[in-house]
Amino acid sequence: MRVPPTADVVVVGSGITGAATAAALTRRGATVVVLDKEIGPAREGSGRAQGSLRLQGRHPAEFELAVEALQGWARAAAEDPEYDVELDFGGNIYLCTEPDERPLLLGLVDQARASGLTSVEYLEAEAVRDLLPTATGALPGAMYSPVDAQCQPAKGTELFVRRARRGGATFVYGVKATRLIAARDRVVGVQTTAGRIDAGAVVVAAGAWTAHLLAGVGARVPILPVSMSELETAPLPTLFRPTVRAWGFGARQRPGGRLVVSAGLGARVTRRVSLYDLHGARHWLPRARTFRKNLRLRPDVRQLGREARALTALSPTLVPQRSPEPVPDRRSVDAALVRLARVFPAATGCRVDRRWAGLVDLTPDGLPVIDTNCGATGVTVVAGLSGHGLALGPVLGEIGADLALTGITGRPILPFALARFSGPVAAPEVMI
Q: What does the radius of gyration of the chain's CA atoms come to, in whole angstroms?
């Protein structure tokens, strides 16, 4: 595809963050070009997510953003009612399947209420049965938020692509950003495999590949790409309306009855290891030791070969033109379905129609990187979403537009500054 020669803002990446940023920018009158090396939007991360749009269970720093994001999802769907993204505000419930899990859930309830989420509550076993009659397995209790939502991830991303296109944004697929062009420490454009685009601002929302692109302007972002597996079953009778999360499984039920199942809290993720893993190792090694049972390591022979030829492990030249299809961890996700069936026996023995994996751009503390201090003036990064990108997408788009056009935002993003990695950071309580 050809690229326009100029734009006010170039957005790198057309996952939910890039699409929502483009939509917010065009609404403010900016000319926008969105680049993606894949053949369509959200082909690596957000389009392969489970689809839970939740408030509860988050780090307190994300609560305010998550509330605004849910409002953004409702508004976007209302503005495009003919496009069905399976958006349903049916709530989210964290199931307690063992008594020793109760203290952590009670602590999360306290965090949520202290941040103003007064609808979040802990339910005892009898109240859980009233809410979920099909959950006849052992359940000491649950943490419940009635206002959370879910959607079909690929369709949800496309909803914001449609908004951006209506505003005049140009989406260019199959074209890779190869270099951020800077002059006198200010970005002036983007070099791509299809030519140069001159622009005074660039938003890097490139997910797993963000660190490579920003290395070209001297910024170091400790992002570790991992893959997380999911499966989808054949249609079943209605088992639950809220999205469900627990230690060992997570699920949502689509309108046609299909269950989308992940490994939930304590999920095992796969890391394709290369020399890149030395980047940010001082932050990652403590977390890897803590969650070693949740980390499945496999060598990435292709990437090792690229790194050897390039004589570096961190460069835009190491970003593949097309990412290989991640291999799902069948054992992990099938075990999650078995655990789900212990709580919801009606799911026992159901047919699995497909399995897949998607890339998740983790940071050492499980929080995103949202910043404009990224090596050159005019460069904004919104990445390292650690599996939270789909839910936060609408508000991340507004923040990305704020920062690209004015360099500041009124939303609370200080906890997400890149500079926090200059010292020690706290590890999250679960792997993902």
A: 21
Residue pair 37/133 in contact (Cβ under 8 Å)? The answer is: no
pLDDT of 246-289, one tens digit each? 999 999 999 999 999 999 988 889 999 999 999 888 888 888 88
Specify the pTM: 0.95
CA-based max dimension of the chain:
65
User: 3-state DSSP call for residue 73?
Assistant: helix
Do residues 25 and 169 lie in contact, with contact meaning Cβ atoms separated by under 8 Å? yes
422 phi/psi in degrees, rounded to 5: -75, -15
Q: In the beta sheet, which residues pair with residue 204?
A: 12, 381
Could you tell me the fold of the domain covering 9-422? FAD/NAD(P)-binding domain (3.50.50)
**Half-sphere exposure (Cβ direction) of 382: Cα atoms closer than 13 Å:** 32
Distance between CA 175 and CA 236 in Å, rounded?
41
DSSP helix/strand/coil, 343: helix
User: Sign (positive/negative) of CA torsion 260, 428, 70, 382?
Assistant: negative
Distance CA 351, CA 115 (A): 41
Strand partners, 36: 173
Burial (0-12, 13-18, 19+ Cβ within 10 Å), 64? middle
Say if strands 259-262 and 224-233 run parallel, antiparallel, or are unpaired: antiparallel
* DSSP-derived 3-state class of residue 234: coil
Question: Which residues lie below 8 Å from residue 309, measured CB to CB, with a gap of 6+?
Answer: none
Residue 68, number of CB atoms within 10 A of its CB: 15
**Residue 363 near residue 222, CB atoms below 8 Å:** yes
Where are the domains positioned within the chain?
A: 9-422
Nearest residue to 378 (alpha-carbon basis) of 127, 202, 174, 124:
202
Q: What distance in Å separates the CA atoms of residue 254 and residue 151, rounded to the nearest whole number?
A: 8
pLDDT band at 368 (very low <50, low <70, confident <90, very high): very high
Q: Hey, what amino acid is at 418?
A: L
What band does 431 get if pLDDT is binned at 50, 70 and 90? low
Across-strand partners of 201? 9
Q: Please give the DSSP secondary-structure letter assigned to residue 259.
A: E
| DSSP labels, 147-195 | T-EE--HHHHHHHHHHHHHHTTPEEEES--EEEEEEETTEEEEEEETTE
